[in-house]
Specification:
The protein is of the alpha/beta class. The chain has helices at about 45-60, 75-80, 95-100, 115-130, 140-155, 180-190, 210-235, 255, 285-295, 395-400; strands at about 1-5, 15-20, 40, 65, 90, 105-110, 135-140, 160-165, 195-200, 245, 270, 305-315, 320-325, 340-345, 350, 360, 365-370, 385-390, 405, 415-420. The protein folds into 2 domains: about 1-40 and about 300-420, D-serine dehydratase-like domain (Lyase, Ornithine Decarboxylase, Chain A, domain 1, Beta Barrel); about 65-275, Alanine racemase (TIM Barrel). Helix 3 packs parallel to helix 4 (about 115-130) and helix 6 (about 180-190) runs parallel beside helix 7 (about 210-235).
C-alpha cells in the first residue's frame, strides 16, 4: 500500500512511499522529516507487548483473538497472528471484511449481527472465502427472528456459527439470566442455518481496580458462563466439534483468564479478546495494568507504545503554550493526553518534561499546555519545541489516523502501518 500527501502526517512535498519501503527513507522524527502532529508507534514496546501477552496466554493454556477494532490495521493483525494469536475479533461485519481481505482466517464478531445487509455481506464473505471461520453473538429471540426473516428472502444457504452472549444488568448487550439464555440455546438448535458454537461475555464494565470487588464480580459472571456451558452440553445443544468460551477486555483480563476453561466433556477452547494490550497507553490502561501486576505479583507488565507528537506553535501569555494537536489527532474520551518528553528540532534524543507541565484542554487543532510561569525560564516551553505526549485509550487515537510510522527508540522511522476506519 502506498502512503502519500493525502495522508495526515506524510510530508506534503514527498513522492508516495510504499509501506514496505517506509524504513528506507531515513526519516528521523526529531529532525523534522515528517510534519506534526504525528502519531507514532514504538517498535520495542510493540515487540515486548506481543511477547508478554502471548506468554500470559500460553502459560494458562488459553488463546487470544485480540480485538481488531482497536487498530483497524492489517499490518498489526499480521504481527499478532505471527506472534501466535488464534484469530482476530471485530465489532461489525464491515470490520470483519477488512480482516478477511487481509488473510485473517478465524474471526469473532463480538456483537450482534441481525441486519439483512450485514447478513447478506457476511454470507457472501464466507461463500467466497471457504477457509475462513466466523462466529457472531446472539442474545435474543428477536434477533433470531430477524435472521430467519432475512433467510426467507435470501438465496443464501450459508450456515452461521454463533455464540450466546451473557450480559450484565444495566450494561451492554447479552442475556440477563440463565433461563433466557437456555431458551435461546434451544431455539438456536431448532433454527435452520444456525449452529451454536459457544458462550461469550464481556467483563470490562465491571473493572474498578479495587481487587476484592473486581475478583468477586468477575467470578460471578464467569460462574454464569460455566453454568450455561454445562447446561447446554447436558441438553446436547452445541453443534460444533469444539466449544468456544470467550471473554476479556483490556483492563481485568487476568481475572477472566482464571475461569476460561469450563469443565466440559467435549473439547473447549478459552479465548481472550483483549485488544488495547498491543500499544497499551500512558493513563487508563497503564493504571489498570498496575492492578494486574499487583494481583499477579509481576515486576513488569505492558509498555506504552503509542505517542502523539506535536510542536509548540504559540506562547501567547504567561503559563500557557498552544500545541499543534487537538481533538482531530489524539484521544480525549477517557483522559487528556499527557506530555512525556520534549526536544529541540535536530536533537539526537528526547528529555523529560517538567512535572508542572499539564495539558488541560483540547480544541479541534490545539492543545492547551499549562505550566508554572514562576518556574525557571529553562522550564518554559518555547515556540518550535517538539513535545511528545502519551495517550489514554488507544482505540480513539487510532481512528484519527490513516497511517502511523513505526519508530525505533531513537525516533527513526523503521516501517509503517495502514489504518482503515
Amino acid at each position: 500500500m502506498q502512503i502519500n500527501a493525502s495522508f495526515k502526517g506524510f510530508p506534503g512535498h514527498h513522492a508516495p512511499v510504499d509501506l514496505a519501503h517506509m524504513g528506507d527513507q531515513n526519516w528521523h522524527i526529531l529532525k523534522g522529516h515528517l510534519p506534526f502532529p504525528l502519531a507514532v508507534i514504538k517498535a520495542s514496546a510493540i515487540a515486548h507487548n506481543l511477547k508478554w501477552m502471548q506468554d500470559f496466554c500460553s502459560s494458562r493454556k488459553l488463546d487470544i483473538a485480540p480485538h481488531g477494532k482497536t487498530t483497524m490495521s492489517p499490518e498489526l493483525y499480521k504481527m499478532q497472528i505471527d506472534a501466535g494469536a488464534w484469530g482476530i475479533s471485530f465489532a461489525t461485519v464491515f470490520q470483519a471484511g477488512l480482516g478477511i481481505r487481509n488473510h485473517v482466517k478465524r474471526i469473532i464478531i463480538a456483537n450482534q449481527v441481525f441486519q439483512a445487509s450485514d447478513l447478506e455481506a457476511l454470507s457472501h464473505l464466507l461463500e467466497t472465502h471457504s477457509d475462513v471461520s466466523v462466529f457472531f453473538l446472539v442474545d435474543s429471540l428477536a434477533q433470531l427472528k430477524q435472521i430467519e426473516s432475512w433467510r426467507a428472502s435470501s438465496s443464501s444457504q450459508q450456515a452461521f456459527s454463533v455464540l450466546i452472549e451473557l450480559g450484565i444488568d444495566g450494561k451492554r448487550t447479552g442475556c440477563r439470566d440463565h433461563a433466557t439464555a437456555m431458551q435461546l440455546a434451544r431455539e438456536i438448535k431448532a433454527t435452520n442455518g444456525l449452529l451454536l458454537a459457544g458462550i461469550e461475555c464481556y467483563e470490562g464494565a465491571l473493572a474498578t481496580c479495587h481487587h476484592e470487588h473486581d475478583q468477586a464480580a468477575v467470578a460471578a459472571l464467569m460462574q454464569r458462563v460455566q453454568n450455561l456451558a454445562l447446561a447446554c452440553e447436558k441438553e446436547d445443544l452445541f453443534q460444533c466439534s469444539e466449544v468456544l468460551i470467550t471473554a476479556g477486555g483490556s483492563a481485568i483480563f487476568d481475572l477472566v483468564a482464571a475461569h476460561l476453561q469450563p469443565q466440559l466433556s467435549r473439547p473447549a477452547r478459552g479465548i481472550l479478546r483483549s485488544g488495547c494490550y498491543l500499544t497499551h497507553d500512558h493513563v487508563e490502561y497503564r493504571k489498570m495494568l498496575r492492578c494486574v501486576g499487583e494481583r499477579l505479583k509481576l515486576a513488569e507488565t505492558l509498555k506504552p507504545a503509542l505517542e502523539v507528537i506535536s510542536s509548540v506553535q504559540s506562547c501567547p501569555e504567561p503559563g500557557l503554550a498552544l500545541l499543534s494537536m487537538g481533538k482531530r489527532d489524539v484521544s480525549y474520551d477517557m483522559d487528556l493526553p499527557v506530555p512525556i518528553w520534549q526536544a529541540a528540532l535536530g536533537d539526537s534524543a528526547v528529555s523529560s518534561v517538567p512535572a508542572h507541565w499539564e495539558i488541560k484542554a483540547l480544541n479541534d487543532q490545539h492543545a492547551y499546555l499549562h505550566f508554572n510561569p514562576q518556574s525557571p525560564a529553562s522550564e518554559h516551553p518555547a515556540v518550535g519545541r517538539i513535545i511528545g505526549s502519551g495517550i489514554s485509550h488507544p482505540c480513539t487515537t487510532f481512528d484519527k489516523w490513516r497511517w502511523m510510522p513505526i519508530i525505533n527508540d531513537d525516533y527513526v522511522v523503521t516501517s509503517g502501518i495502514s489504518i482503515h476506519f
